[in-house]
Each structure stands twice: as structure tokens, then as C-alpha cells.
Amino acid sequence: MKIRIPVVLLACGSFNPITNMHLRLFEVARDHLHQTGLYQVIGGIISPVNDKYGKKDLAAARHRVAMARLALQTSDWIRVDPWESEQAQWVETVKVLRHHHNQLLGSLPQMEGADHGKTHSPGPSAMPELKLLCGADVLKTFETPNLWKETHIQEIVEKFGLVCVGRAGHDPKGYISGSPILQRYQHNIHLVTEPVKNNISSTYIRQALGLGHSVKYLLQDAVIAYIRDHNLYTRDGS
């Protein structure tokens, strides 16, 4: 039986707030990688961005981390990691990948000695990989001048790899063909199709909350309760 490569999926972003769409990214990405027959997804990490990122209407990191933890209460393989949000300044994505890659390699002795069960045991000879999980909208941002360093884009796709889930209005294949770097390493970019069209966005959620509209079934109930209890995303704070 061929040994599958163990993979941990890392998603970076604002998660402002975390939506059911964010959670679905992990599920469809895991299904896709498993169906290739090459990989075994052994974990997922959500890494909320640092407050110093300076994005408009960005709730404090402590709130975004807390909401992510609440949203993941029913997941047995995805966790939130606050490391990025706890740094003194904004951390570039490639540096977040390096950090978690080092953490992953550092946990190897424990992983090999632990009993992971039948579905999660990749075998001692398979080295784990860390891949950046994102939506196709993130892939498009690689085109934006001065937003990403080309050396960082190359390191992300060459050393780590991307798992990119399609979104309405985006053409990930076109983004790859239009970028020499992405073309060169397209073998390390997994394009995933979400079978259920899902256009939920955190921007829409914030707008709806600001208008006093219901967001039930778009977010986990525990997240909705947290937003209400902490008066987040309301125009007048009430």
C-alpha cells in the first residue's frame, strides 16, 4: 500500500468574523487532497491576522481568535493558532508559514510515537507537508503590484504549496497562466472546486450586522452569540 504524504492545511486571514464559508474551505480541501490518493490531511490551522495589519473595521485579535475557537468547537481536526495575532507587529504570510512549518517539524518525534488511529497514520517514512489554504480571491491578489514580494510568492508555491478553493467571479487557472512564478510551480498548486456555491463573505456579515439583519445559518450560533454579547460590528455599539 502506497504511503500517503501527511498534510497540515494553514489558512491565514482576517476572519472578521469567521464564517461557515471559512470552515467549508477546509472540508472541501481535505476531500480533494484525499481523492488524489497522494495525501492524508492530518490537521488544519486557522491563523487570524495581527491587529497591526490595519484593515478597516478589523475587530481586535482577541475577539477574532475567540470567535474562531467557538466556531471550531465541533471540529476534531482544525484548530485556531493565535501566534500570528500575538506578535508585536503584522507578520507576512510567508513568515507565518515558516513558523508553523518549524513547529510541525519539531513535533515529528511525537507524531511518529503517537497512535493516530487507522485513518490518520501516514507511516513513519512520510515527511509531513504544510500547505497554504486560500480562496481564489487570494490567488488574484498575487497580481496586485507591491502587495506581495515575488520572492515570497515563489517560496510559498515552491516550498509549501497552495490549495486554492474556487470562488464565484474568479478564474484561478487564468491567474496561474498570467503569472510566470505560478506557472513554473503550478504542479504544487491544487485547484479545488466547491460543489456548493458559497458566496458568504465577512464583509457582507459585517454589513448585515450593522443594519441589524439576521446572520443565522451563515455563522456558527456560538459566534453569533459572542458577537451579540460583545457588541461587535454594530454601527452604534448597541
Describe the structure in brief.
This protein has 238 residues and is α/β, with parallel strands linked by helices. It has helices spanning 20-35, 61-71, 83-86, 93-106, 108-113, 136-141, 150-160, 172-177, 180-184, 202-210, 221-229, and strands spanning 5-13, 39-48, 78-80, 129-135, 162-165, 189-192.
Strand content: 15-25%
Strand tally? 6
What global shape is seen? globular
Count of helical stretches: 11
End-to-end CA span: 59 Å
Provide structural commentary.
Helix 2 packs antiparallel against helix 11. With 238 residues, this protein is α/β, with parallel strands linked by helices. It has a 6-stranded parallel sheet with strand order 3-2-1-4-5-6, sandwiched between helices. It is 41% helix and 16% strand. The relative contact order is 0.18. About 5% of the residues have low confidence.
Fill in the keyword field for this structure:
alpha/beta; 6 strands; 238 residues; 6-stranded parallel beta sheet
Which helices and strands, and how do they pair?
Blueprint: E1 5-13, H1 20-35, E2 39-48, H2 61-71, E3 78-80, H3 83-86, H4 93-106, H5 108-113, E4 129-135, H6 136-141, H7 150-160, E5 162-165, H8 172-177, H9 180-184, E6 189-192, H10 202-210, H11 221-229
Parallel strand pairs: 1-2, 1-4, 2-3, 4-5, 5-6
Helix pairs in contact: 2-11
